[in-house]
Structures are given as C-alpha cells and as structure tokens.
Design goal:
722 residues; alpha+beta; 5-stranded antiparallel beta sheet
Length: 722
C-alpha cells in the first residue's frame, strides 16, 4: 500500500497523517516499500528497505511512523529513510524488540497507558537498538490509532544534533517541578551515553537559597537517573544523598581554579583511582560495563558563578567521548541550568505556600472523636495549593467541631481566604454559636471579602465558597450539622448502614440577596462507633458519571472501613481508590469516628426552678462525686460551683433547670441549662454590690467557663480540675 500523497483528504489515522504531511521528505517510490501492508505478516517485504541515496533536491527524512495493534505488535511502518538504517522493523514482531533491554519496562508501561486512557504521550527522548548493536536517538510520541482501527501509532523523529539540543531544551523547560526538570535533563543527556544522572546541591533540591559560600562543602542528592531499571545494591538512586566523600570529590573536581569546568574520566582504572574506595565505586559507577564518565557542572550565571549540581553521563569502554560530544553536553547543560534554578525558586515558593496552608489547617480532634484527614492538591506545584480547608477541634464545653469548606480557585489568594474563614469559624464555634449561626457570619464575611475595594481590586472573588459544619455532643451522641452549598456528608452507622445525609440544600456563601434564606440545622444520632465522612467535590466529581454516583461510590468505600482499622490508613485508602489520576480539583477527606463518653462518666438531672433547687442539686452531685471517689477539695469546689450556677438560673432565667456533670480527662465539666436567653457577664462589681457576685465565684473556682445557646435557652458550663 503506497503512502498517501500530501493532498489526500481520505487519510484519517495518525499513521497516514504523519506520512502524508511529510511527503516532500520521502524519496519517490520509497514509501510504498516501507508500508509493508501488501505482504503477509513476517514476510521479507515487511522489513524496512533502506535507500542509500535520497532523491536529489529532497531533504533527508527524519520522521517515521509505526502502527501497533493492541498486543503492541507492529502492523505497518514507514521507516525507510537512511537515518533509520539498521532498525529491524518486521510486521508482526513486538515493538519492544527495537528497544534496549533496560528500557522495555518503562516504554511498555507508557504504551499500555496510552491504550487505556487515550491520552497521547508526546516527545520523549528514546533510544532504539540497531541490528549491529549501535543505537539511534529519537524523539518518540505515542498516539491512539483513529477509529475504526485499534491500537497505537508511534511517531519517531531522528534526533540530529541541533534538533536534539533544541528539543531537549524545550522539553526541560516545560515543568517547574524540580524532580521533573532533572528527569527531563537526564533523559536528554542519555543520547550521549548509556546512563545519565543528575546530582543537585541539597539546597537546590529543597528550594533554599544557593550562594557561592560553602561550595567546597557541597552536599549532593541524586535528583534523576535514567534509564529506569533495577540497580545494584549500594548504588545511589533518586532521593538518596551521595556519600560525603563522593560529594566532596565531585565538587573539587568540577571547581578548578575557582571556575566550574567539565571533566572526563576516560576509563575504569582512572575512575577507581579517583574514587579511591570500593564503596564509592559501588555508589557511583552504574555497572562493570561503564568505563568512562563525563561530569558537567550545572552553573548559575553570576559573579561569581554558583554551582547548582553535577550532570553525569556514563559510557562503555568502546565509546570514548570526543571533543565534539563534550561540547554538545556542555551546551545542553548550560542552556538548561537556568530551568533548574527556576524550579528551585518555584520549590521555595511552593514550600512557603504549603507552610501557610498547613498552619491554617490544624488537625486536632478531641478525646471523644478520632479523626483522620487527607488533603491532595490538584497539581504538585504551588498553583495547586488551593482553597479546600478542613478542621477538627474540641470545643471548650466538651463537644467536638468538624468543619470542611471549599474556596473557589487556587494559589495564595484562595489559601489566605480559606485561612480567614477557617479561623473565624473556629472562633465563633468556640464562643458557643450554633452551626447555622456560624454560617450566617461567614456569609457576611464572604460578602465583605468580595467588595469592590478588597476582593475585586485584588483580582479574586470569594463568592460561591461552600462550607459544612458538624458539632458532635459526646454525651447525647448526637450531631448538629449545617451546610452552605456543600455536598452532603456520609454517615456510616455501627451496623454498617451507610449513605449521604438528607441535608436541605442551600446556596453557597455570599449568594445574592434574593437567594438567601435561613441556614437549616440537621440533627441526627451518631452512636459510638459511627463514622462520619466530610469531603470536598474533588473527591467525587467525575465528568463521566453523575455526581450522585460519585457520592454513592464514596459511601460504598467508607462503609468498608472496619471499626478497628487505623483511621489514617483508611482515609488514604479511600482517597487513593476514588480520586482521579489527574484531578482537576483539590481532594479533601475528613473522617471522624465517634467515641463519646461512657455512660458511667456522665449524669443529668432536671430540676424545677424553685428556691430549693440549689440545695437539691448539691445533694445529687455530692452523692455522685463520692461514687466517683473525687478528692474532698475538688468536691467542695464543684458543690459551690453548682450551687452558684443553679442559683443564678433560678434568679435570672426560670423554667426547668438541667444539671449535667461529666467526668472528662483530668477535669470535671459542670453544665447548668435554663430557658433564659440573656448572656451572663462578668462585671466589675463593687464590694457591697450583690449583682454578678456568683459569676466572680465561678470565675475563681474554674479553669475556664462559658456559655452556649440552645433552641430552648442557654447552657452555662465550667471546667474544674481534678
């Protein structure tokens, strides 16, 4: 089958498109023999035929294409140009037969990934093995074959010297991740050797500042190593620090006469003499076949220049480096050193933003709730540090708050807004406000953040942020929950039943006035052993499935968490099983396992609001404290405290009075509830002023005290140390 002409409009497969688009580069009559489609699989006609002399006046063909079936076997090929001479491309043979043995696992994985996902793998430097044992460096792209065909099209561009330098620099500059940048540089350097490694100064790897000081004491860490293979024990692989002696030797070798210079150690005997130790030989020399190495410094221009690290290219004994190749290596490394420094600067900024986010996301639970959380940014760079936030913290009155929110957008602005909302929510919940009241305040805050002077002027809008707040009472084992535009939490009961809570939908924070309505409170039972999952939409959203199906998948996953599973491991397992490989949004999951107080650690009494209520309360509490074997001095303080709180409730509030005592940790929590809605205040009473003296007594007797409001009134609580 002849290769289609450039004007053909019927070509639909990537193979045909590549061939037709490059018709002027193909010698006349050569493509038909290369296609190999007319012969039966395995016949000699399927073997690539090399033309020794291209047609006069035509440029040398540097691009070819190979079609593969789903078993990764060759079905068609177009590699008949002289540059591809020696490649044994036979119809029906596995494509991996063209690869060096150590590259087969990595390339096979990439081929199958494109088959499964349909996402192209573009422009990776790859070496192909010729029949005579030599190798050809190409830029390889993997594309899905067009329907109705199945399989893949692999395009190969033979890398001429200048083209290779240009392509390598372009590929290296596409990422701001320091690991990916080092990996791209190492893959490009592999065109000149058998093994390439990038060793960076530890300060570069961590994003710290790099100066000319202390270069003689440079500490190197391996950032990249190609090809991907199983290395012998003791050899330094990515993430490992080079031995101290090796770092010192390399830094001394490349810094001669106060200038960074490339060096070549030509043979194995010289390498062993320079390293001087079998341990260093095992750490740095890739294999017995590696006999020579070129070490090229990564230098940051300046006065004086600063060495960022060392690039190493290793070769076999039968392939010594010549001057031209060494110049090419130096040119490529010199062109790309600034990309490494840009990645270092980005790493520093990324670390700073992450530090800010972690500081704004405390993850501490109370004694009555076990919590575990996972935060996974959409991308590994600082742009992926976004506005997903979560918090779990004990409230002063013994309850526990669980909060999850999502601020629209990514970056420092979203992280700062998230921090402001998170801290405000914590302060308001600690002050005793109910979840719906906290959301009302956050709604006003978002509106103020988005006004013309503060929000829009900064180019950032907080409108549409979502938030879900749950407060767990460890005595009643009930949860009060309010939501502002957030997806419903998942509740797993101790008997294994699981599903999303039926939370009334509400617009996000900062909605238009016409859409605003009071925030609702959903109250439900959460017996000890229950599991509550709060999350953000990045965990369940998938363009291919409805959102309800994504929530259902999460419910199924959380329901498999066993009561004695380690919660941190369970949270990571749930996220790894549900989150997409290439997420477009941050992923957040907060799991809370309800524990509560034991029945014997709490007691509740309801008393009528009469003059003898204080005396009755003292009698009941005194009997319980003796049963708990409380110390005499603690019992006296608790009795005085309960007496003062009940007296104030009878005097200023009325209605039935509830007295609750909780044995928690190292203290006793006393609560007195009434039907009044006035806020008790600690005033500066005079010596003979009777009003407010009860609160002064409470203040002196307790470690802390406060007020929270309920649907029927308020509760004054106080903690006394045991």
């Amino acid at each position: 089958m002849d290769t289609p002409s450039p004007s053909s409009s019927s070509s639909s497969s990537p193979f045909d498109l590549v061939s037709s688009a490059l018709g002027k580069y193909i010698p006349r009559g050569g493509a038909s023999a290369a296609a190999g489609a007319s012969g039966a699989p395995g016949e000699d006609t399927a073997r690539v035929r090399v033309h020794p002399n291209p047609a006069a006046g035509l440029q040398e063909q540097i691009l070819g294409a190979v079609n593969l079936d789903r078993e990764l076997r060759i079905t068609r090929s177009n590699l008949d140009a002289p540059v591809f001479a020696g490649l044994e491309v036979v119809t029906g043979s596995p494509f991996v037969d063209l690869l060096p043995p150590w590259d087969i696992p990595t390339v096979t994985r990439r081929l199958r990934q494109v088959l499964e996902t349909g996402e192209a793998h573009v422009a990776r430097v790859q070496r192909l093995r010729r029949a005579d044992g030599s190798e050809l460096v190409v830029s390889m792209s993997i594309l899905s074959a067009a329907a109705p065909q199945e399989g893949l099209t692999v395009s190969l561009i033979a890398m001429a010297r200048r083209l290779h330098l240009y392509a390598a620099e372009t590929a290296i500059g596409t990422s701001l991740d320091i690991g990916e940048t080092a990996q791209s540089l190492a893959e490009s350097l592999l065109a000149w050797g058998d093994v390439a490694a990038i060793d960076l100064d530890f300060a570069v790897w961590t994003g710290e500042g790099v100066t000319e000081h202390g270069q003689g004491r440079i500490r190197l860490r391996r950032a990249a190593l190609v090809p991907d293979r199983v290395w012998p024990e003791g050899y330094v692989t990515p993430g490992d620090d080079l031995p101290k002696d090796a770092s010192h030797l390399l830094s001394q070798a490349i810094r001669r006469d106060d200038a960074a210079q490339a060096i070549v150690i030509p043979d194995r005997k010289s390498i062993e003499r320079v390293l001087g130790s079998p341990k260093l030989v095992r750490a740095l020399v890739p294999s017995d076949r590696s006999a020579g190495v070129a070490c090229i410094p990564l230098v940051l221009d300046g006065s004086p220049p600063v060495v960022l690290g060392v690039a190493e290219v290793w070769r076999r004994a039968d392939r010594p480096f010549n001057d031209s190749e060494l110049l090419d290596l130096q040119e490529l490394v010199a062109r790309t050193s600034h990309h490494v420094d840009l990645a270092r600067q980005h790493q520093r900024e990324h670390t700073q933003v992450l530090a800010l986010q972690r500081r704004l996301l405390p993850r501490t639970g109370g004694d009555t709730v076990e919590t575990a959380s996972v935060y996974q940014p959409a991308t590994p760079d600082s742009a992926g540090v976004g506005g997903d936030w979560f918090n779990s913290f004990p409230l002063p009155d013994g309850r526990t708050a669980l909060v999850v929110g999502d601020v629209v957008g990514h970056g420092l602005g979203a992280a700062a807004t998230m921090g402001q909302l998170s801290m405000e929510a914590r302060a308001l919940l600690s002050a005793g406000l109910a979840p719906d009241e906290v959301l009302e305040h956050l709604d006003k805050t978002v509106t103020m953040l988005d006004d013309a002077e503060s929000g829009l002027a900064a180019g950032y809008s907080a409108l549409g942020s979502t938030c879900c707040i749950a407060v767990y009472d460890p005595v009643s084992h009930r949860v009060a929950l309010s939501s502002a535009g957030h997806l419903p939490p998942i509740l797993v009961l101790p008997d294994g039943r699981a599903g999303p809570l039926a939370v009334r939908p509400h617009p996000g924070l900062g909605a238009e006035f016409a859409l605003r309505e009071p925030f609702g409170v959903h109250t439900f039972a959460a017996p000890p052993g229950s599991l509550l999952a709060l999350y953000t939409d990045g965990l369940v959203e998938d363009p291919a499935v409805p959102i309800d199906e994504g929530i259902g998948r999460l419910a199924d996953a959380v329901s498999t968490v066993h009561p004695w599973d380690v919660l941190e491991e369970a949270a990571r397992w749930v996220v790894s099983g549900l989150s997409p490989l290439r997420g477009r949004d941050d992923v957040t999951l907060l799991l809370a396992r309800m524990i509560g107080y034991r029945k014997g650690d709490t007691a509740t009494w309801r008393l009528p609001a009469r003059d003898d209520a204080a005396a009755r309360a003292r009698t009941l509490v005194s009997a319980l404290l003796r049963e708990w074997h409380t110390r005499d001095d603690t019992r006296d303080r608790v009795l005085l405290l309960v007496s003062e709180l009940v007296t104030n409730a009878v005097r200023f509030a009325g209605g039935p009075i509830t007295v609750r005592l909780i044995r928690a940790g190292h203290g006793l929590l006393c609560e007195v509830g009434d039907t009044g809605n006035g806020r008790p205040r600690l005033g500066r009473g005079e010596l003979l002023d009777d009003g407010g003296r009860g609160l002064h007594v409470v203040h002196r007797l307790t470690a802390r005290w406060g007020v929270r409001w309920t649907d029927t009134g308020k509760v004054v609580w106080a903690v006394v140390g045991r």
